[in-house]
């Protein structure tokens, strides 16, 4: 599974870094993906982060 963040849509709320810190971190005022591909044991938390993103900027596929 791969995770992507649409930086134009990201508002920098950092919810994804709370839901899945192994995959997402803040770089300046935007979230970035730090694990590509997503580790198998973190796929569910990555999907949770995508579902919780208020702007749907995260895709986990």
What does this structure look like?
This protein has 61 residues and is of the alpha+beta class. It has one domain: Alpha-Beta Plaits (2-Layer Sandwich), CATH 3.30.70.20. The longest helix has 10 residues. The relative contact order is 0.34. The model has no long low-confidence stretch (mean pLDDT 98).
Distance between the termini: 5 Å
Major sheet: arrangement of strands: 1-4
CATH level-two architecture: 2-Layer Sandwich
The CATH class label is: Alpha Beta
The amount of helix comes to 10-25%
**Apparent shape:** globular
Q: Give the percentage of residues in beta strands.
A: 15-25%
Provide the descriptors you would attach to this structure in a database record.
alpha+beta; Alpha-Beta Plaits; two-stranded antiparallel sheet; 2 helices; 4 strands
């Amino acid at each position: 599974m791969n995770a992507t963040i649409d930086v134009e849509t990201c508002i920098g709320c950092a919810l994804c870094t709370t839901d899945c810190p192994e995959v997402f971190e803040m770089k300046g005022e935007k979230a970035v993906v730090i694990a590509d591909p997503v580790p198998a044991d973190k796929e569910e938390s990555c999907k949770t982060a995508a579902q919780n993103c208020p702007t749907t900027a995260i895709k986990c596929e």
